[in-house]
Sequence to fold (424 residues):
Amino acid sequence: MAKRTLGELYGDHLKAVCALADKALAAGGYDGLITCSGRQVYYYLDDSTYPFRPNPRYRYWLPDATPDCFVVYRPGRRPMLVFNQPDDYWFLPPEAPEGYWVAHFDVKVVRSPAELGKLAGKARWAVLGEPAPATEGLGDHDPPAVTGPLDYARAVKSPYEVECMALATAAGVRAHRAAEAAFRSGASEYEVHLAYCRAAGAREEELPYNNIIAFDRHAAVLHYQVLDRARPAGVRSFLIDAGAQHAGYACDITRTYAAEDGEFLDLIRSVDSVQQKLADRVRPGVDYRDIHLEAHRSLAGVLVRHGIVRGSAEAAVESGVTSVFFPHGIGHLLGLMVHDAAGFAAGPDGGTRAKPAGHPYLRLTRDLEPGFAVTIEPGIYFIDSLLEAARADARGRAIDWKRVEALRPHGGIRIEDNVVAQDG
Ligand code: GLY
Ligand code: MN
Ligand code: MN
Fold:
């Protein structure tokens, strides 16, 4: 069978979103839904704006990323797109919408978002988006009866969404390869960042999150944000956590490299093999919390095998020693947000699924379903503050401090891929 085009897949995606909205609106007692793209926000005391990031709930409906636009939907009718195209000569007004998705909408081009009220008319509206003058008095903002089921459903990606994420991944992979080449040819963190953006074809603000480009000890800072302009002499290691987007859908990829052969490269290979094994556990019906706990057991094995931790792997998990070296969750939902919505939801109508005791940073506690897109990102880090805290208590006795000192200058390792749960 011929591969279906993105446009064909999108038609089915939109139908499914409408069906979800129909159900949520009926349950919440609303006549219709207005979903706002969001507004440009100005820096304090300044007349320039923060980079614009559309409301992810708007992007669920369409790939557009224009501020002050609205999807107006009433069950049984074609969705209306109120598209703001101001008459402006300070900023270039957006082009009228174009592309595979436009024919699915009744498009109304307006010169001001204030025209929304007249076009939408009076009804019991649920309004998704930050309060703004254009939506004032139109209806209830972000009612949980509507946001709950829509956010919950977003964990399951439609074939359209999976294809968008695959396109984002292709750009991310291309850029990761360029970044590695830049690192190997002597670039600084900042220069690696530029090589990444160029290869991804993205301005910084078009990336799904700030690039983490960390040499040596910087890799021990989980969300390291500084891009050093100078490359230090004798760089040992390089961790890059960087993504790309397509139509608002993100990829979130991490790789770690050693400058030379040796113990650190061996440790990278061990984490990589754990990562591959855990990625294979992403199947429908699996409780994601179990993958996180398995990551601790597997990483404990790596720590013991590499002589970093003494005693048994079981004891290292039991005593919390693994959390010294792996202090974050094994991953999260991924989609229109990098850490996507409703990771802890017990169901579409609310409730929370608890994190396992002692694991406060896990971001996903749901059972995987077909179409769930998640990351799998185990790591081993040498973080001074966590190591010193462990040295001061009983955990310190299980750690081989000589081995830690040898590896500490490399900062840490994380390896991250994106996986869609599928039967079979
Ligand atoms: N890039 C952020 C994360 O991996 O969660
Ligand atoms: Mn991630
Ligand atoms: Mn990441």
Summary: The longest helix spans residues 159-184.
